[in-house]
Amino acid sequence: MVQEVRYPLSDDFKRIIAGENETVFRMVEDRFSVIIHARLSGLRIEAKGKSADISGALALLDQLKIAAKNGTFISPKYLARLLGEEKSPTKKSAKAFIPAEPIFRNKLGIPVVPKTISQAELVKVCEKNDIIFADGPAGTGKTFLAVAIAVASLENHEVERICLVRPAVEAGESLGYLPGDLKEKIAPYLRPIQDSLAELLPSEKLKKYQEEGQIEVAPLAYMRGRTLKHAFIILDEAQNTTIPQMQMFLTRLGEHSKAIITGDSSQIDLGPKQVSGLAHAIRLLSKVRGIAHISFPPTDVLRHPLVREIVKAYESGGKK
Fold first, then answer.
1. Which one of 35, 67, 95 terminates a domain?
2. Which domain, by its residues, includes 286?
3. Does residue 262 surpass a pLDDT of 60?
4. Is the domain of 146 the same as that of 272?
5. Interval 216-225: pLDDT, tens
6. pLDDT one-digit tens code per residue, 19-42
7. What compartments host this protein (predicted)?
8. For the residues of 139-195, what is the DSSP string, one character each?
9. Which helix H or strand E contains 261, and what residues bound it?
10. I need a labelling partner for 132 at 20 to 30 A (CA). Which of 2, 34, 41, 83 fits?
11. Do 34 and 108 fall within a single domain?
């Protein structure tokens, strides 16, 4: 077994990755039972006992270096989230986590990269599947990442347009009591998708795309009777679709099109006798080639730290 290896790393990247007072390096040491010597050029990684996993430490350092190069802020919190899914990531699993290149650079030039294992899996399955279900709690970055992948596809001329849809379940019969015309009535339900687009694209470019019909944000009901070719389609809040609505949406897919369906099965706003089309579709289509399903765990919540604890509490229902 290898007892010591040298890891090439510039002083600049060493400072970025190490964290304040080298806390990130200390976390790597604890996880993989190694000792990291950083005083000389590069790093010297030494095995610490029989449980040492130098290969795992090297693989993780590779990914931290890639993440830092892509503009990700490396912190103990980031590393803890990265390691949360796997007790002992192997070189193979670590390499699968973060792509070598950003998915997309937002309007400020900041690279958009996966921040959790589940997000990386979503990016990976999009390359080989045309329909992807992404199910998980609010705050795990499902919708934003899906929109980023779609925008990147449009910018790279892989598709001709993006269609972003949401069910307006909460409106129901009360829609007529909201002020304004139909467009103004449904605007609040489409706001989360509009916010993601506004974060990714400069306002003038977004306006141009929308005026030319290359980016369309619409309620699910507008999809009936349409066939979407050469398009990237995203259905958000899919847990609030009924089975017939989900079937209608899935059959809108035309030639050279791709769809990502995101939702949170724990937050269904349908009536008590209605079955969620999201859960039904995941069960029904689980073995169909070309369709993938990614499940985001509560540990992937990227919002305020308390949100993760709230999600866990509600999932457990107060049970100890």
1. 95
2. 104-316
3. yes
4. yes
5. 988 888 888 8
6. 878 888 999 998 889 999 988 888
7. Cytoplasm
8. TSSHHHHHHHHHHHHHHTTS-SEEEEEE--TTTGGGGGGSSS-HHHHHHHHHHHHHH
9. strand 258-263
10. 83
11. no
pLDDT in tens, 164-210: 998 875 534 344 555 555 556 666 767 888 888 998 999 999 999 99
Helix residue ranges per DSSP H, the chain? 11-18, 23-32, 54-69, 76-83, 91-95, 117-126, 142-155, 182-200, 203-211, 243-250, 277-284, 305-316
Instruction: Please provide the average confidence, as pLDDT, over all residues in the chain.
Output: 82
For the stretch 94-127, pLDDT in tens is 444 444 467 888 887 777 878 778 888 899 899 9
Buried b (16+ CB within 10 A) or exposed e, 127-156: eebebbbbbbbbbbbbbbbbbbbbbbbbee
Sequence letter at residue 223: M
Residue 85 CA to residue 94 CA, distance in Å, equals 11
For residue 49 the two structure tokens come to: 């006992």
